[in-house]
Write a structure and sequence with these properties.
With 341 residues, the chain is of the alpha/beta class. The chain has two domains: 236 residues, TIM Barrel; 87 residues, Bacteriocin As-48, Chain A. It is 43% helix and 12% strand. It is built from 14 helices and eleven strands. Helix 5 packs parallel to helix 6 and helix 7 crosses helix 8. It is globular. InterPro entries: Aldolase_TIM, DUS-like_FMN-bd, DUS_fam, DusC, DusC_C, tRNA_hU_synthase_CS. Belongs to the dus family. It catalyses: 5,6-dihydrouridine(16) in tRNA + NADP(+) = uridine(16) in tRNA + NADPH + H(+); 5,6-dihydrouridine(16) in tRNA + NAD(+) = uridine(16) in tRNA + NADH + H(+).
Length: 341
C-alpha cells in the first residue's frame, strides 16, 4: 500500500456486532494506529443489566476500560427507553466505563423491529431524550458519544437528528455515510458528512466504505473531518489504521496474515467453545478475501473443517509456503508474531 498525504488525527475501531469481540479489539489495538475501540452493542430493553452481562461484552472494564496495550474502550448501548438506557449507563459508569457510546445506526431488521438502532432516526425528539437522559445520568468527566446513519429511509431528517444529539449533550458523533435503506451498498456518501461537520460544534467521525489508504484519504477530503472509523476495511486489512497514520509502517504479507490467524485462533481457546473457533477464523477469512487473493484458496481449504487443530494445520501449511518463498516478516504492524514461526 502507498502512503497518503492527508492523515487522520483520530482512528476508531467500529463496533461490528458478531465480529469485533474483545479478542479482535486486542489484536487490532496491538497492531497499532487505533485511538479508541467500542464494544459490540449491549441491548437494553428494560431493567438494569447484571454486571456479568456487561463484563461478557466489555471485559476491558476491569482493566480501566483499556485494551492490553492501553487503547481506550467505550461501552456501546442500544435501546429506545431513555430511563433504562440512562440507568444502565450509570451502572457502567460506576463499574469504571471510560465512556458511553449510543447506537443509533444499526440497520439490522431484528434490532429495528424492536425499536432500536437506525429506526430511531425517524424521531429526532427521541434521540434527544435518550442522549440527554444518559448525559444527566453519568458523571461529567465520562464522555457520551453517538453513532448514526444519514437517515432511515432517506436523508431528510439528518440535520434535525444531529442537532438533537448535540443538544442532548453528546461530545462526539460518528456518521456512517449511508441510510438504513441503503445498507452497505456502495457508494458511501461522504460529502454529506461535510455538511454535518459544518453544522455542529462537536467532533465528527466519518465512517463507511473505507477499504484502503486511497479510501481513507478520499473520505477525509470529502467529509471535511480528520477523524475516521474503520470497520470492514480494517478486518480486511488489519494494519490499515497504522498505515493511515505512519508512512514508515510496512504492509503485511500474506504469510504474516496467516500467522495472525493462528494467533487469533489461539486467543479463542480460553473464551470460546472449541466447536465455534473454526467458524470465527473462517469469518475473518471471508473479509480478508477483499485484499488477499490467497485468502480465497485458504477459505476453500478450511471451510469444511470443524476442529481448531485441523484449521491450524492448514494455516501452518500456508505459512510454510510463504517462508520458503521468502514472503514473510513475522509481524503485522506493531504485533510481533515470530514466536509462531
Amino acid at each position: 500500500m502507498k502512503s497518503i498525504v492527508l492523515k487522520p488525527s483520530f482512528v476508531m475501531l467500529a463496533p461490528m456486532e458478531g465480529i469485533i469481540d474483545h479478542q479482535m479489539r486486542s489484536i487490532f489495538a496491538s497492531i497499532g494506529g487505533l485511538d479508541r475501540c467500542v464494544t459490540e452493542f449491549i441491548r437494553v430493553v428494560g431493567n438494569e443489566l447484571p454486571e456479568r452481562v456487561f463484563r461478557r461484552y466489555f471485559p476491558e472494564i476491569d482493566n480501566h476500560s483499556l485494551t492490553g496495550n492501553n487503547v481506550p474502550v467505550f461501552a456501546q448501548l442500544l435501546g429506545d427507553n431513555p430511563e433504562a438506557m440512562a440507568a444502565n449507563a450509570a451502572k457502567l459508569a460506576r463499574m469504571g466505563a471510560a465512556g458511553i457510546d449510543i447506537n443509533f445506526g444499526c440497520p439490522a431488521k431484528t434490532v429495528n423491529n424492536n425499536g432500536g438502532g437506525s429506526v430511531l432516526l425517524q424521531y429526532p425528539e427521541r434521540l434527544h431524550k435518550i442522549v440527554s437522559h444518559i448525559r444527566e445520568a453519568v458523571p461529567a468527566e465520562i464522555p457520551v458519544t453517538a453513532k448514526i446513519r444519514l437517515g432511515y429511509k432517506d436523508k431528510s431528517l439528518v440535520f434535525e437528528n444531529v442537532d438533537a444529539i448535540e443538544s442532548g449533550g453528546a461530545s462526539q458523533l460518528a456518521v456512517h455515510a449511508r441510510t438504513k435503506l441503503e445498507g452497505y451498498k456502495p457508494p458511501a456518501h461522504w460529502h454529506y458528512i461535510q455538511e454535518i461537520v459544518n453544522q455542529v460544534s462537536i467532533p465528527v467521525i466519518a465512517n463507511g466504505e473505507v477499504w484502503n489508504l486511497g479510501d481513507v484519504e478520499t473520505c477525509l477530503r470529502a467529509s471535511g473531518t480528520d477523524q475516521i472509523m474503520l470497520g470492514r476495511g480494517l478486518v480486511a486489512s488489519p494494519e490499515l489504521a497504522l498505515l493511515s497514520k505512519d508512512s514508515n509502517a510496512k504492509a503485511a504479507q500474506w504469510g504474516d496474515i496467516c500467522l495472525l490467524l493462528i494467533h487469533y485462533l489461539h486467543s479463542l481457546e480460553q473464551t470460546t467453545a472449541e466447536k465455534h473457533q473454526p467458524n470465527l477464523v473462517k469469518q475473518w477469512l471471508v473479509y480478508l478475501r477483499e485484499r488477499f487473493a490467497d485468502a480465497f484458496l485458504l477459505f476453500e481449504q478450511v471451510k469444511r473443517l470443524k476442529h481448531p487443530l485441523d484449521v491450524e494445520n492448514e494455516l501452518r501449511k500456508a505459512v510454510e509456503t510463504q517462508v520458503k518463498a521468502g514472503r514473510i516478516s513475522g509481524t503485522v504492524g506493531n504485533l510481533n508474531l515470530t514466536h509462531l514461526l
